[in-house]
Amino acid sequence: MNSAEINEYKIKRISEVAKELGIDPDRILPHGHYIAKVPVSILDEKKDQPDGKLILVSAMTPTPQGEGKTTTTIGLGDALRKKGLKTTICLREPSLGPYFGIKGGGTGAGRAQVMPSEDINLHFVGDMYSVSKANNLLAAMVDNHLQHGNELNIDPRRIIWRRVIDLNDRALRQIFIGMGGVSNGVPRQDGFNITPASEIMAILCLASDVHDLGERLARTCVGFTYSGQPVRASDLQAEGAMQILLRDTIHPNLVQTIEGTPAFVHGGPFANIAQGTNTAIATRMALKLSDYVVTEAGFATDLGAEKFFDIKCRIAGLNPSAAVIVATIRAMKYHGWKDGGFENLEKHVENIQQFGLQPIIAINRFDDDSEDDINEVIEHFANKGVKAITATHYANGGAGALDLAQAVIDASEAFGQRKIVYQYPLEMSIVEKVRTLARNLYGADDVEFSAKAMSDIALIAKCGYENLPVCIAKSSKSLSDNDKLLGRPRGFKISVNEVRVSAGAGFVVIICGNIMTMPGLPKVPAATKMKLLPDGRAVGLA
Q1: Cα–Cα distance for residue pair 431/106, rounded to 1 Å
Q2: Do 133 and 199 reside in the same domain of the chain?
Q3: Which domain holds residue 194?
């Protein structure tokens, strides 16, 4: 953000934002004038304060452009604040992969943005880099152990810990390392994931405090011995150094919206290949400091929302009181309108209802939407007992989401002290957990497990990891694992090709269909439109 933009939006110094939350400005750790880290110790100091109400923003199955879930989260937060409620927004940190690829930044758009957007979308405070470094340090220590005698009897064919980088680079998906002679290490097949898919990112986002962070790092499984026993980071004595690399990263990042609403932007796991929510620490801190906290989970209800409820809420002890499903006329027509679009949105409504919440549909309005189309959607869902409300936060900021905010307040009060419903007990087998989600949330007839997947599950169960939640990695473009099945597909099966344990994070990753944990760039990457002008201004940024 340049100085002109700062002046236009009258962005407050971050010390003023901290004051609004009741945080002593002397306690924050500033990164310039408009960004600060908030010490995690404040969460413990506020532990006796009652929690505010937690609101989840999810979506219908999106088009490749996305339907404005982050924008809606920001606009709703601004609207709640306009109503006089102390409100905080909780978002994930953007990844450079999609930023330079096709999807663009993760800071909202129009009048519903978090600021300073350019800084947040690019290097921000270095969290992505420290996660990458902690991850790759562990990878280096694994290979160093092999080089120096392999006392732990690690089977090089069973090493599951991969290196990461925060860019889309398909050439790194599968590589060979240790080539060129004895001094270069033990040759083996390896590969890269993108940083938001790293288990270190998942650990950061699910850790409850600094001590818990260290324990999760210690029990991270890097591979297996020749006899099939798990090898952990603690066996390599790596967790201490990794924790040091993350010692500043664990503190939530405080910024603000264009309208001055406080926002924590912290942690950045993808939802199609990881758990897709911001850090539990940031969310819990916001709840202690606010009347209302608005957060988003990546992609649609079948991915982000399910993981938010079944993984994050279960692990962090959270209990949301309302949920919003973002829809657009564009997405409904993309899925076939009356021949698929209405049914797609209906399925996402049903998904949220299965968790015990009555969702509100937010129709994120675009300029070319017709009144007839909007009214048809509103009437259709009204007949099903579901509120659909038009929101114009992109153009009007918080003022364009006041009706949505009131509906959220009403839903939260009506929910009262009830508890959300998880989709499965932890004692259920991995196979049945996956089948339950596939049938209930995707609408699949069944699940087909490859021979490799079943072998993976057997090894995971043998090592004592079967009672963990499952984190399903699948396409975000369909309720199924097939990108081409739009609308509300029926009569399909989910294909599970591989199963991985994330013991430190505390879940089992289920790889479905053709999902990639290292995305590739499109034919014309967004990076081709970016340029730095002689006066230092950047143009072409999403």
Answers
A1: 34
A2: yes
A3: 127-245
Cβ contact 34:256 at 8 Å: yes
Average pLDDT, the chain: 95
Our count of domains for the chain comes to: 3
Task: Give strand pairing partners of 512.
Answer: 496
Q: Are residues 278 and 388 in the same domain?
A: yes
Alpha carbon distances (Å) from 473 to 306, 335, 350: 12, 22, 21
Are residues 401 and 285 located together in one domain of the fold?
Answer: yes
Which tens digits make up the pLDDT trace of 9-60? 789 999 999 999 999 999 999 999 999 999 999 999 999 999 999 999 999 9
Q: What is the CATH number of the domain that holds 472?
A: 3.10.410.10
Domain with residue 164: its CATH number is 3.30.1510.10
Cite the beta strand spans of 351-506 per DSSP E.
360-364, 388-391, 446-449, 470-473, 493-502
Alpha carbon distance 198, 517 (integer Å): 9
Of 419, 319, 404, 417, give the one whose Cα is nearest residue 359: 404
Label residue 469 exposed, middle or buried (CB < 10 Å: 0-12, 13-18, 19+): buried
Strands 112-115 vs 322-327: parallel, antiparallel or unpaired: unpaired
Q: Whats the size of the chain, residue-wise?
A: 542
Supply 100's token pair.
Answer: 């330079």
Please report the sign of the dihedral spanned by the C-alpha atoms of residue 202, residue 204, residue 209, residue 215: positive
- Positive or negative, the CA dihedral 404, 405, 410, 412 is positive
Q: Which residues of 266-276 are buried (b: 16+ CB within 10 A; e: fewer)?
A: bbbbbbbbbbb
What is the Cα–Cα distance from 254 to 252, expressed in whole angstroms? 6
Which tokens belong to 350? 């049903």
Which residues is 253 bridged to in the sheet?
37
Let me know if residue 298 belongs to a domain: yes
Q: pLDDT per residue over 386-437, tens digit each?
A: 999 999 999 999 999 999 999 999 999 999 989 999 999 999 999 999 999 9
CA distance 517 to 505: 17
CA distance 213 to 217: 6
